[in-house]
Write a structure and sequence with these properties.
The protein is of the alpha+beta class. It has 3 domains: 166 residues, Glycoside hydrolase, family 65, N-terminal domain (Beta-galactosidase, Chain A, domain 5, Distorted Sandwich), CATH 2.70.98; 382 residues, Glycosyltransferase (Alpha/alpha barrel), CATH 1.50.10.10; 58 residues, no CATH class. It contains 14 helices and 30 strands. A 6-stranded antiparallel sheet has the order 6-7-8-9-13-11. It has a 5-stranded mixed sheet with strand order 14-26-27-28-30. A hairpin with a 2-residue loop joins β8 and β9. The protein starts with 9 loop residues before the first strand and ends in an 8-residue tail after the last strand.
Length: 647
């Protein structure tokens, strides 16, 4: 059966729970439901008044975890065209379940006596089964509590409401077969004010969603990948989300790294793709798995990303003792990377995913003529991640007095030369991959944007990639492949759509490598997209001249939500180096958002407050002590007053 569509759904999330419905608020089928830990706690919730469903008129989110639905009851109240009886549903999702408050309001001139009935049921379906459109009732495995106040054993009330009065009932639905999960407190104080107010809105929505997508693993916090399909720990997704979201602080990066380190591969297991030193792809509750094992390692890039995320978190102020505790994991991860024969490659397995890079759909890696690439596949961005990981590993090991730095720098240099000889296509751009015969997979694809800023490319090569990305850019972000590709489809998953995280990664690389004009254009494209999606960027959307919703897209998605904080990093040209005692700025000039000011950007244990004029002049108003503030040319940054934050 077909995967359910989500594009018109209202989603409330508080990891590990999510609540989805259409604009009416009713739960009637498809993906509708309240889910906790990848199981559907509530599959049906239908409200009627005197046997009739209310007529929906509006629905809106009031936060990442809450929404309100308004409807009218046309058959009740005064005669005439104006509606005088309304029904409002206020929804709040919490980590263990959720509440819904139903209010009947009588604005008519007569007393009403009506019967309000709520039909509520659960099917206990797993998220995987819902996603594949094959959900069926499960008889065991979990327990749910349905409660109401005022109480009614059958969720039916006879209600009398005087003119200008209202009546309310609160419904509470809770999964009760596991330990209670505390509701997360607000995590970030990051805020921005810009001449282009769309930046404010995009950052605010992203920060709210990232807060709601946070989940703990013991004492460690991480971002679940996205609602509803991926509300769990991932390797690649959770690492990139934490890395792009470093302006919110290093704590989530540190928690993500520890959660993944605890599960780092220790043996060879073809059923799960586990290998010694390898970082996992995803984790699912055993009672909610579908076709993948509960702990699955089918990813080729998470291991390199683990190393570089640790290095970046250290630069942003992760405590030295916490970093040192993960260096053994770094060394094991680097041995896994170096253990490949030639380039870092993967072969799909019969029991897992076909593709192990971020474009992991079955048709996600194609030649320009539309032929599917056959494995083992060596992806271009994975080689760039590995190069950066080796350089980062060398720096980390030397920073802590460990041996191995020289080995990994030499390994990185050799990888760069071999990449240069094998991956560059005759048209002057890097192939998306090498296939199992060593042939270049020659699609012009967004993967090349991930090479920027890693150090793998020369200055001339970086300029060539930036030029190709300009060709891939739609009005709303960077397309996953060029329209000239035979497999191009603006509404495909990986063959023409726009992914905000993919665009944000390229944006950071463009800014780091000095391509200011193209970086500014990408920022404007993301803001244009945000405006059309109520500033809650989806997982992906159609990459043509209109940002068409991809019907099954997750929304919110953590690495899409992190695009807002990533834009701030690019706008400021921010390079944090807390161990080195400096913070360096290279703001985009002129600013593509006009004048702006950023407050509450966390570096170390302090917060940065900085403003930039439309012409690009930067002033530091406050920041962590113990560091110097520099411009990219080495000159001191303008300080408005003495920094007072503690670092």
């Amino acid at each position: 059966m077909a995967q359910p569509y989500l594009h018109d759904h209202v989603t409330c999330v508080a990891a590990p729970a999510t609540w989805l419905s259409g604009p009416s608020g009713q739960l009637t089928g498809g993906a509708d439901g309240l889910y906790v830990n990848d199981r559907r706690v509530l599959s049906r919730l239908v409200v009627t008044v005197d046997g009739r469903p209310p007529v929906p008129v509006t629905a809106r989110r009031t936060g990442a975890s809450s929404a309100v639905f308004a409807a009218v009851l046309r058959e009740l109240g005064d005669d005439g065209p104006d509606p005088t009886v309304t029904l409002t549903r206020r929804r709040l999702v919490e980590p263990n379940g959720g509440t819904e408050t139903i209010t009947l309001a009588n604005a008519s001139h007569q007393t009403l006596t009506v019967s309000l009935e709520v039909e509520a049921s659960t099917d206990y379906a797993s998220m995987g089964a819902v996603k594949d459109g094959v959900a069926a009732a499960i008889e065991d495995g979990m327990s749910v509590s349905f409660e109401s106040e005022p109480a009614s054993p059958d969720f039916r009330w006879q209600v009398t409401i005087a003119p200008r009065e209202s009546w309310s009932v609160e419904l509470r639905f809770t999964r009760t077969d596991g330990p209670a999960v505390a509701r997360s407190k607000r995590f970030s104080t990051l805020r921005v004010s810009a001449d282009d107010r769309r930046l404010d809105a995009l950052v605010r929505a992203g920060v709210q969603d990232l807060d709601a997508l946070r989940r703990t693993d013991g004492a460690d916090v991480y971002y679940t990948a996205g609602s509803p399909w991926y509300l769990t720990l991932f390797g690649r997704d959770s690492l990139w989300s934490a890395r792009l979201g470093l302006p919110l602080g290093h704590d989530v990066a540190a928690g993500t790294l520890r959660a993944l380190a605890k599960r780092q591969g220790v043996r060879h297991d073809p059923d799960t793709d586990e290998e010694p030193g390898k970082i996992l792809h995803e984790v699912r509750p055993p009672d909610a798995t579908y076709f993948l094992p509960p702990v699955y390692y089918g990813t080729v890039d998470a291991t390199a990303l683990f190393v570089s995320t640790l290095a970046d978190a250290y630069r942003w102020g992760m405590p030295r003792t916490a970093v040192e505790a993960l260096l053994d994991n770094v060394e094991r991860g680097m041995e896994w990377l170096a253990g490949h024969d030639g380039f870092i490659a993967y072969q799909s397995s019969a029991k897992g995913l076909t593709n192990h890079g971020w474009k992991d759909s079955g048709d996600g890696v194609q030649h320009a003529d539309g032929r599917l690439a056959t494995g083992p596949l060596a992806l271009s961005e994975v080689q760039a991640y590995a190069y950066r990981a080796a350089v980062d590993a060398a720096w980390l090991l030397e920073s802590f007095g460990r041996e191995g730095g020289g080995r990994w720098r030499a390994w990185a240099a050799d990888l760069a030369e071999r990449f240069r000889a094998a991956f560059w296509c005759p048209g002057g751009y890097p192939a998306i991959a090498l296939d199992g015969t060593g042939q270049q997979v020659d699609s012009i694809a967004s993967n090349m944007g991930h090479l920027l800023g890693t150090g793998l490319l020369s200055t001339a090569e970086s300029a060539a990639v930036a030029e190709r990305l300009a060709e891939l850019r739609s009005p709303f972000g960077i397309r996953t492949v060029a329209p000239s590709s035979a497999g191009y489809n603006a509404l495909s998953y990986h063959l023409g759509s726009v992914w905000p995280h993919d665009t944000a990664i390229a944006l950071l690389g463009l800014a780091r490598d000095g391509h200011a004009g193209e970086a500014a254009a990408v920022i404007r494209a993301l803001l244009d997209a945000g405006e059309r999606f109520d500033f809650r960027l989806p997982e992906l959307y159609g990459g043509d001249d209109l940002p068409t919703p991809y019907p099954a897209s997750c929304r919110p998605q953590a690495w899409a939500a992190a695009a807002g904080p990533a834009i701030l990093t690019a706008l400021l040209g921010l390079d944090a180096d807390v161990p080195g005692g400096r913070i360096t700025f290279d703001p985009l000039t002129p600013s593509p958002v006009g004048a702006f000011r950023v407050r509450g950007l966390k570096i170390g244990d302090g917060e940065l407050d900085v403003s930039v004029t439309a012409a690009g002049a930067l002033t530091v108003h406050n920041g962590p002590v113990g560091v110097v503030f520099l411009m990219a040319d080495g000159s001191p940054a303008v300080i408005a007053r003495a920094a007072t934050s503690e670092a």
